[in-house]
Write a structure and sequence with these properties.
This protein is mainly alpha-helical. It contains four helices and no strands. Helix 2 crosses helix 4.
Length: 79
């Protein structure tokens, strides 16, 4: 598995099930917010909050795993 794929995999692995489900439905299945609300039996406000929090957690995890990977490879820059 490529390093980038490992980073994304680990970043996704470390967010909650609900957050994963929202991101999956929204980005992979191309569902609308209204459709996601119906599937998950939640309000639009809750889905929007879950999506925003999930993206925040995913981005934070990517940064964390990139830093870990660069230190593991002996590189200490933030690129």
């Amino acid at each position: 598995m490529k390093t980038t794929n490992k980073i994304y995999y680990n970043a996704m692995k470390n967010i909650s099930i609900l957050e994963k489900q929202v991101l999956y439905l929204y980005f992979y299945e191309c569902k609308t917010l209204k459709e996601i609300c119906s599937i998950m039996k939640k309000s639009k406000k809750e889905i929007v909050q879950l999506k925003n929090i999930a993206l925040k957690h995913f981005k934070r995890n990517i940064t964390k795993y990139k830093k870990m990977n660069s230190k593991k490879n002996g590189c200490d820059n933030n690129d």
